[in-house]
Design brief:
With about 150 residues, this protein is mainly alpha-helical. About 75% of the residues lie in helices and about 5% in strands.
Length: about 150
């Protein structure tokens, strides 16, 4: 497989995984949905993949490439994006779960970008488990805390 076809495969896999998480967010009518999650996953994959493939073009570049710096900058950038979906109104904070899914989807994109497809798929399944199954349990058993209703809109 050529470098270009490998990169294209990674991009399509990341969009698919991002869309899967985004669909759940769309069903719950959250601020960030399918497109946002797919784009975050795609961007993280593109940055991660490009850093690897650029270094493979010239062995001298590999010595100067710092993959940890690329990864940390993806995390920082997603932190800013996630902060944009968190809102506070009076005594309620909303958007924390959506911000966390954006952050996690970027990690999934990085996994895909570094070629760790199986781990990315397992991470996506775990995200869905947390959002759907744990979300149901949370609403059923923990909807009241100290006599106040928790805002289930996250």
């Amino acid at each position: 497989m050529t470098i270009e076809s490998e990169l294209i495969t990674r991009l399509f896999v990341s969009v698919l995984l991002g869309l899967i998480v985004g669909i759940e967010r769309e069903f719950k009518d959250r601020f960030a949905g399918m497109r946002t999650h797919a784009l975050v996953c795609l961007g993280a994959t593109a940055f991660s993949s490009v850093s690897i493939f650029i270094s493979s073009m010239d062995p001298a570049i590999l010595i100067r490439t710092d993959f940890a710096r690329i990864a940390s900058n993806i995390v920082v950038g997603i932190g800013f994006l996630g902060a944009g979906v968190i809102f506070k109104t009076q005594d309620r904070i909303t958007g924390l779960t959506t911000a966390a899914t954006l952050w996690t989807v970027s990690a999934i994109g990085m996994l895909v970008g570094f070629g760790m497809f199986k781990i990315a798929v397992v991470a996506t399944a775990l995200v869905l488990f947390l959002l759907v199954v744990v979300g149901i349990l949370e609403r059923k058993y923990f909807s009241k805390v100290h006599g106040k209703k928790i805002n289930s809109r996250d």
